[in-house]
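Structure request: Aminoglycoside phosphotransferase family protein, Nonomuraea marmarensis.
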Amino acid sequence: MADVEEVEVVVAHHERATLRVGDVFLKIDADQTRTDVEVEAMAMAPIPTPEVLWRKPPVLALAALPGTALGRLGEPSIASSAAWAAAGAAARMLHDAPLPPWPGRSLDEIASHLDGECEWLVTNGVLPTDLVTRNRRVAEAALRPWTPVFTHGDLQVTHVFVDGDEITGVIDWSEAAQGDALYDLASLTLGHEEHLGDVVVGYGTHVDLDVIRAWWSLRSLLAVRWLVEHGFDPSSPGCEVDVLRSRM
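Returned structure:
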């Protein structure tokens, strides 16, 4: 660490920040409950996760994973089909693991949140009414009973690291909980629909593709306000607004 010449800001907003210093990631979170979940979930997960180097609230230090992210939202992924299939297999391994002891969001909580966000998007003129209405209808298919599994809760492509065709680890476990397996698969393939088939092959069992597409709409509708308020642009090419438009 003494020879490190610079500090890289990976992400920063008023809730949390992640810095990279050499081969160490420093996660600073105002809500220590999220960090508690992250540390416990990584200890329970049956797939590779970053090594916890030390924790001194509000800072958690993690070792960097080898390899590179599976992809990025808004950019074509250069990872192989085999790497995407390996990500699907890792998700299946996680979903087959014993449940974490804490519950996830209920159907009623998700539906209420979705209704509130849709109203805000329309009332404030952030998105066209027909775009919101159509995607709200599509999202309805995700709002059905499911058998809870151990979910990562934010399994987006930037959180899955690969080296060649192998998964080297999964990061950012603060949203881990009991939840819907198809939500994880939807998060993984959001904006990368061309790799959904690879992920399903790796997952190794039948999945309802309409429900995954419903989660794409639902996750995107829920994300827009948060992204705007935290300085991100959900209307960038290939990102959440484009995902919503693709459902029209």
